[in-house]
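Figure caption, in words: inputs first, then the predicted bound structure.
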Amino acid sequence: MDIQTVAWWKAIVESMNDGVLVIDRAGIVRTINPEYTNITGVTPDIIGKPLVAYRPGAQLPKTLIDGESRVGVYRKARGREYVVDMAPIIVDGEIIGAVSVCKSLNEVHTLTQELAKQQETVAELKKQMRSIYKVKYTFEDIISQDSKMRDLISIAKKTALTNLPILITGESGTGKELFAQSIHHTSLRTNEPFIAVNCSAIPVTSIENELFGYAEGAFVGALQGGKSGLFEMADGGTLFLDEIGDLSMDVQAKILRVLQEGSIRRIGEVVERKINVRIVAATHRDLRQMIAKDLFRSELFYRLNVVSIQIPSLRERKLDIPLIINSVTPQSYTVDEEVMNFLTSYDWPGNVRELRNVIDFAVCMTEEKRISIQHLPDFMRKHHTLYADETRIIPLHEAVDEAEKKILQHALQYVGATVQERLKLANELGISLATLYNKMKKYQLN
Ligand SMILES: Nc1ncnc2c1ncn2[C@@H]1O[C@H](COP(=O)(O)OP(=O)(O)OP(=O)(O)O)[C@@H](O)[C@H]1O
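Bound structure (adenosine-5'-triphosphate present):
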């Protein structure tokens, strides 16, 4: 080696952040760098002397004999702690020396402390995430004295403790999410996240990104570092897939795959990520009918419908109406008997949600802490005049409108939003598709 090359290698070794000591084939120390002195306290006067004479416990000379590398050897000398990696230096198949590279344990301690700090931050963030995704409702919040509802609550409580998928069906506002939250609360996953996804509210173009996440650069506008999806966020907890009947066949197939494999693949990524998620799905649609029309995958239905909870509409459990009214009305308020009777006989297309809204509104309107018919929303007062007072003569067109609205409201609950389904409904109703859309607009039905 010429002088320039030797100077070059010396400069490299001296600039290293790890301590370096090199011995030749005879076990004589040929070089050490300043960091070696920093870490071990051994000064450069060792150079040119046999290592074992200076450091009797040194293992580096063994490397000369067996040619084996030694990694992470712990050493403590002169009150200093460090770890050493040792390797033979081989040229043309012959061991011509050995090198020892050491790292101070102070640095390792600092890194360990830094790691522990980061782990604490991750644990704290996880805790915060759990509190964000904590459920609000429990089974105690489900108000009902209906025997069918009591049976459903009992089934839900029992199955909550398992990992079985649950499918909750029922009209809008019947309490599907209330059941889903209560199930999570009672389950062993209660301290893990409850993630609710309204499948009908997420645009078709982003539903897959939201559910499965994506890798960096998966598409234009993808976040740096990629993004985890809702399945990943719910890991360890419960994923509530609300309005599952509104998902395209394509997305249904992908969800089915996730459930079968127990793992997800972010969009644009090839690695599979294991997930442990309990699925509770809900819909107001008749999935069996959708299967018959090739709008829902039967394999997914059977996978989700392991436990089936079919919540009856409020009009099918009228006894619950006064109970719910009383629970929503503040204690110091009274409700006129006329109001109670009228609300109990009403059909409640929006179920418990609509009933709660009507009472909240009436409580706001009354000034004497007494709810009478006049405090109900306009559309209900109209309905009351139409139906409650049978002796009163009302314009026929108002009665016809009201009846028409009720029929449409009811029918629309059971059909999807596609043109084909609406056309089929229009045919069943004996009107054209255009007339159906006009009437939906007139009565503000979606
Ligand atoms: N049996 C019940 N007792 C008390 N409150 C109820 C009951 N059922 C529903 N509610 C209340 O009614 C509202 C609507 O309930 P929830 O959101 O669970 O209905 P949903 O069936 O999931 O509706 P959607 O299909 O429109 O999403 C909530 O405020 C919920 O607390």
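Residues 3-107 form a domain with the Beta-Lactamase fold (CATH 3.30.450.20).
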